[in-house]
Write a structure and sequence with these properties.
By secondary structure, this protein is an alpha/beta fold. The chain folds into 4 domains: about 220 residues, HAD superfamily/HAD-like (Rossmann fold, 3-Layer(aba) Sandwich); about 90 residues, Rossmann fold, CATH 3.40.50; about 190 residues, NAD(P)-binding Rossmann-like Domain (Rossmann fold), CATH 3.40.50.720; about 70 residues, ACT domain (Alpha-Beta Plaits, 2-Layer Sandwich). The chain contains 25 helices and 24 strands. The strands form 5 sheets. The protein has a 7-stranded parallel sheet with strand order 16-15-14-17-18-19-20, sandwiched between helices. A 6-stranded parallel sheet has the order 3-2-1-6-7-8, with helices on both faces. Strands 10-9-11-12-13 form a 5-stranded parallel sheet. Helix 17 packs across helix 19. The longest helix is centred in the C-terminal third of the chain and has 21 residues. The protein is elongated and about 100 Å long. It starts with a strand and ends with a strand. The mean pLDDT is about 95. It binds 1,4-dihydronicotinamide adenine dinucleotide and 2-oxo-3-(phosphonooxy)propanoic acid. 1,4-dihydronicotinamide adenine dinucleotide (NAI) binds next to helix 17 and helix 19. 2-oxo-3-(phosphonooxy)propanoic acid binds next to loops.
Length: about 625
């Protein structure tokens, strides 16, 4: 930071989220019957003063006349305002407080309540320039120091002139009285601060509209905080993820674009160029080409369980951390499987269709209880094992087969081979993941191994099953029925038609990939995935990432955090530490974790470092991505 830089910061609606005199009015008028009316009048006068319509001194006099404030009220106001500091000032507190010597708070408010708030934040209260109340003998406010230039219009310019500042002067504020400093020629630039209020009249003449302090620090190249200001982080959400996700990202200060459909590879390549965070569900294919088109991608959020639609290797190679929601819709899939098992064992799809066609087919032929029937589960992961528990509760006898050695829950029986499972069970439910090796894994050979009259359910992925072979198994009577929720080719949105060789088959339930589509599951996912992504962006923690080494990091205290992602080759850590040693940087703590593809080094260092050091770290041979967090 240059030594000759001065920041002039407004207090009301800039340093704090509120107008202090409005809050004072609420304190003074608590319990007063005319409260609402007076409050409204005070706010009107404040606005007229702030957009320059009403002379400032008149606005101040009129507001104070409406209030009979005591010294105790002023003290209380100071306490309330300590909890109302603007979010981006709080976010940057540690760094910003270190700029104390370059910062003045210049306000048409009053030192009496501004100084305690500024001191509480960590800035020098002596560098607050503002009005002063006058009190009567009983301690009530009876006026203000009229000799103070800040008690009249144009006062801020006068004060800055008197300060006779050397070097560059930047004004940060939300009102016409802040703009006037630059207009009078006492500042290089006026940043209109719009985090709390947007005053249209002032907007037109501002040099830069800044939605928060991060933006200003970034613009002034002063930021050692997040490598990127939050309001510049772009999020693209596809496939109608739950609106909760939009809300969470927007509250964090990110820009969000929301689409209800999936995009084709071509459309996505075009849209993703400057996107930092991509959110998808099961339909959007994120290919190597898509990843290469993305110039700023930090994260992909799969708002679902499966991540087979994402080229995870390409993501790792490009330093993109992928998060999913591994448990949020598990229960929903299991409940649908249970429902379908019961429906198919009772021939319900055919019976229901007949009723709609005016046919009454009351008969017990071919209808059974599920109690005592043998259920086979292929893929005993989170969904498979939960189905196992619920299925036993309705009396099914559970068998399972998994590629990995999985603990049998309850009374379930593990099968050593798929053949053993298929030859044993009356109902088979597929719950393996969609890894490429599973494409077409279930076909004519496997159907032939099943018992005659068995039932088949696929809630996993469309590509694992040979659909023509399934059709044949139903038509030949080998299978009594089937339920299919996932298809090799699914429409991109609800506006596209659906086609499948399974349409119109007897005792067949077809559903539009809704295994996880319940309000409960979608809301859970809409909260879970954004939180993981935000945690990664803010702290570097990768807990739950499906392609990055998982590291849970403690919060940083009085240190900078450097994140370094590299191809997993030997000696990178040594290289990083040699550079730090050369620059005399003290390592406060350090973490390294690798997986087959990449290594992730997190180094917390004490405060002093320079741009040269950062450049050298970026140049370490296998660096994929380097980021300074604080
Ligand atoms: N229809 C829908 O809306 C939904 C579908 N799904 C699908 O369900 C899949 C499973 O989900 P989770 O249980 O949470 O995943 P998981 O990863 O916990 O379990 C998958 C299990 O399948 C096993 N497996 C993989 N290939 C196998 C094979 N060829 N034979 C036997 N076992 C095999 C794995 O070892 C693992 O234990 C997801 O990957 C997703 O594709 C998930 C949620 C909703
Ligand atoms: O969670 C999964 O893997 C699913 O298949 C659910 O996908 P969806 O979010 O409904 O597109």
């Amino acid at each position: 930071m240059s030594n000759t830089l001065n920041l002039i910061i407004d207090f009301d609606s800039t340093f704090t989220r509120v107008e202090a005199l409005d809050v004072l009015a609420e304190i003074v008028l608590e319990g007063d019957s005319s409260r609402e009316q007076v409050l409204r009048r005070i706010q009107e006068i404040t606005d007229l003063g702030m957009d320059g319509t009403l002379d400032f001194r008149a606005s101040l006099e009129q507001r104070l006349e409406l209030l009979r404030a005591h010294r105790d009220d002023i003290q209380k106001l100071g306490e309330v305002l300590k909890g109302q500091i603007s979010r981006s000032f709080l976010r940057n507190q540690e760094y910003f407080a270190s700029l104390s010597a370059a910062t003045y708070i210049v306000s048409n408010g009053f030192t009496d309540f501004i100084r305690p708030v500024v001191a509480h934040y960590g800035l020098d209260p002596e560098r607050v320039i503002a009005n002063e109340f006058l009190y009567d003998e009983e301690g009530y406010v009876c006026g203000f120091n009229r000799d103070n230039p800040l008690s009249r219009s144009g006062g801020k310019s006068e004060v800055i002139k008197q300060l006779d500042l050397k070097g560059d002067v930047y004004v940060i504020g939300d009102g016409a009285n802040d703009l006037e400093i630059r207009k009078a020629g006492y500042a290089n630039k006026f940043y209109l601060f719009t985090e709390n209020v947007e005053r249209e009249k002032v907007k037109a003449e501002a040099d830069h509209i800044a939605p928060n302090l991060d933006e200003i620090l970034y613009e002034l190249k002063m930021s050692r905080s997040l490598s990127y200001p939050k309001n510049r982080i772009k999020v693209l959400l596809l496939e109608g993820v739950h609106p909760q996700a939009v809300d969470i990202f927007e509250k964090e200060g990110y820009q969000v674009e929301y689409l209800t459909t999936a995009l084709t590879e071509e459309e996505l390549c075009e849209k993703i160029v400057d996107v930092n965070i991509l959110g998808i569900r099961s339909k959007t294919k994120v290919t190597e080409k898509v990843i290469q088109s993305a110039k700023r991608l930090i994260n992909i959020g799969a708002f679902c369980i499966g991540t087979n639609q994402i080229d995870l290797e390409a993501c790792s190679r490009h330093g993109v951390a992928v998060f999913n929601a591994p448990y949020s819709n598990t229960r929903s899939v299991v409940e649908l499987a249970i429902a379908e098992i019961i429906m198919l064992v009772r021939n319900l799809p055919d019976k229901a269709r007949a009723m709609h066609n005016g046919k009454w087919e009351k008969s017990a032929t071919g209808a059974h209880e599920v109690r005592g029937k043998k259920l086979g589960i292929m893929g005993y992961g989170n969904i498979g094992s939960q189905l196992s528990v619920l299925a036993e509760a309705v009396g099914l006898d559970v068998y399972y087969y998994d590629l990995e050695d999985k603990l049998a829950l309850g009374n379930a029986t593990k099968c050593e081979t798929l053949e053993e499972l298929l030859g044993t069970v009356d109902i088979l439910s597929m719950h393996m993941d969609g890894r490429p090796e599973n494409n077409g894994i279930f076909g004519a050979r496997e159907f032939a191994m099943m018992k005659d009259g068995a039932i088949f359910i696929n809630l996993a992925r469309g590509k694992v099953v040979d659909v023509d072979a399934l059709r044949e198994a139903i038509l030949s009577g080998k299978l009594k029925g089937c339920a299919v929720d996932v298809f090799p080719k699914e429409p991109k949105s609800n506006n596209e038609p659906f086609e499948s060789a399974l349409m119109g088959l007897p005792n067949t339930i077809l559903t539009p990939h809704i295994g996880g589509s319940t309000a409960e599951a979608q809301e859970n996912i809409g909260e879970f995935v954004p939180r993981k992504i935000i945690q990664y962006i803010n702290t570097g923690s990768t807990t739950g990432s499906v392609n990055f080494p998982n590291v849970q990091l403690p919060p940083v205290q009085s240190a900078h955090r450097l994140l370094h992602i590299h191809s997993n080759v030997p000696n990178v850590l040594a290289g990083i530490n040699q550079i730090l040693a050369k620059h005399n940087i003290n390592i406060v703590s350090q973490y390294l974790k690798t997986n087959e593809q990449i290594g992730y080094v997190i180094t917390d260092v004490d405060r002093a470092y320079d741009d040269e050091l950062l450049e050298e770290l970026k140049l370490i041979e296998p660096t994929i991505w380097f980021r300074v967090l604080y």
